TrEMBL record:
SMART domains: MUTSac (SM00534). Keywords: ATP-binding, DNA-binding, Nucleotide-binding. It comes from the Bacteria. It comes from Pseudobacter ginsenosidimutans. The keyword Lyase does not apply. This is MutS-like protein. One of its GO terms (biological process) is mismatch repair. Residues 249-431 form the DNA mismatch repair proteins mutS family domain. SUPFAM superfamilies: DNA repair protein MutS, domain III, P-loop containing nucleoside triphosphate hydrolases.
Length: 431
């Protein structure tokens, strides 16, 4: 079973995007190889839905973080290895010897570079195998056991005798045929092992540098998400907040002024849940979470002028899609930031209240719903499974400041006109 989400959610949370400077992917994309980046991309697109598999991957990242290893391959040299192994030799050792001899002749008399490039690529591949053997011999984990056994076996005893040496035509043809023909399958999974090591070393290094943590995944029946210090992974000085949702209080109704930190808190929650399902390090201390079927957000819902959708109608369709998933008894996490802000206050009040009550009935799912319409919170107080939190505003003179600390209750802050006055908008218009 795959983890349910969609493009809107991934964009809301800023999860993907190799070239997006502040994406979560870009935070962890410190890999050194093309294959490592491919594997990292696959992990980001395919969160896990089995608690055992998640915890095993998380433990492996933690192991590498404690090992504090450096990736032992130079990027330029390893590019040679990948290019070299991307082509296959046809024929036997004799025909390959003849082909190598022709390249040698062309290099000597026709200034052809093929033989020189073959030598460079072959030496780089041999050096990479020696470096890989040294690395896997330091690691006592199942992921590298096969590589460790193979590289220390009889088939590869020749490595030490030729590493760093200038190879004759005969040995060039011999080892070229061995690596790209006879041991083709072994070389392919050795490369995959290198890509895996690249990802685990890179991600664990990011975790160590940024002070991330490792979450514990629980079965879906536990129906819980909790962290004593949740923060946004992309903000170096983010204020951590404690948060907990479970079947007894499965909905957090969040209020607070603009700029107080509501959206950042909601994004932090969604990112932590998604990364937790990947088995990756999280910016959340003591995080424990139950496996979910999926995650939907509605934070930056765009209108669709091509289809004639207004912003409000786009919001309605978004809520409808989420409602269909939740009503099918899927075990979901749902984040709604400022429900129905595309319509008038009266309709927004009625719709926010009605939808919040309806969603909260599904105790197997978890919800965070934010709004500026604080009167909705008063109407929700009779529902004992709804918890109320707000991001406060602290006034210093006539200037609002924001501690970004989640506080229990419903805000009474109304600083909109004060901010307008501070910016002297009306003064500019009347003058």
């Amino acid at each position: 079973m795959s983890f349910i989400t969609d493009k809107q959610t991934l964009e809301d949370l800023g999860l993907l995007g190799k070239f997006k400077q502040h994406s979560v992917f870009s935070i962890f994309n410190k890999v050194k190889t093309g294959g490592g980046e491919r594997l990292l991309t696959e992990m980001f697109h395919q969160p896990l839905t089995d608690a055992t598999a998640i915890n095993e991957r998380s433990s492996l990242f933690h192991y590498f973080q404690n090992a504090n290893l450096s990736f032992p391959f130079d990027t330029a040299d390893f590019n040679r290895v990948e290019n070299y192994m991307s082509s296959v030799i046809n024929g036997n050792g004799v025909t390959n010897l003849a082909a190598v001899a022709r390249k040698k002749f062309a290099g000597a008399f026709l200034h052809d570079k093929q033989y020189e490039q073959l030598q460079q690529n072959l030496r780089a591949t041999i050096a990479a195998l020696v470096a890989l053997r040294a690395l896997v011999n330091k690691l006592d984990i199942p992921m590298t056991a096969q590589a460790r056994q193979f590289l220390s076996g009889k088939k590869m005893q020749w490595l030490d005798t030729v590493n760093g040496q200038t190879l004759s035509i005969l040995n060039t043809a011999r080892y070229d045929s061995l690596l790209r023909n006879t041991l083709r399958k072994e070389m392919e999974w050795l490369l995959e092992t290198i890509y895996q090591l690249d990802v685990y070393i890179a991600v664990s290094s990011v975790s160590r540098e940024r002070g991330f943590y490792y979450a514990t995944a629980l079965p879906g029946s536990a129906n819980v998400f909790g962290s004593t210090a949740l923060r946004h992974p992309g903000l170096p000085n983010a204020v951590p907040n404690a948060i907990r949702l479970d079947s007894s209080t499965n909905l957090l109704f969040l209020t607070g002024a603009n700029m107080a930190g509501k959206s950042t808190l909601m994004k932090s929650f969604g990112i932590a849940l998604y990364m937790g399902h990947m088995g990756f390090p999280v910016a959340a201390a003591n995080m424990r979470f139950s496996i979910r079927d999926g995650l939907y957000t509605s934070i930056n819902v765009p209108d669709n002028l091509n289809m004639g959708y207004s912003h409000f109608y786009a919001e309605v369709l978004r809520v409808k899609k989420v409602a269909q998933e939740v009503s099918n008894r899927k075990n979901m996490v749902v984040i709604f930031d400022e429900l129905f802000k595309g319509t008038n206050v009266k309709d927004a009040y009625d719709a926010t209240l009605a939808c919040t009550v309806a969603f909260s009935r599904y105790r197997n799912s978890a919800f965070i719903i934010s709004t500026h319409i604080i009167e909705v919170g008063e109407a929700l107080k009779p529902y004992n499974n709804i918890q109320f939190g707000y991001m406060p505003t602290v006034m210093k003179g006539n200037q609002p400041t924001y501690p970004y600390t989640l506080t229990s209750g419903i805000t009474s802050d109304r600083q909109g006109m004060l901010i307008i006055e501070n910016e002297k908008i009306l003064e500019a218009l009347y003058n």
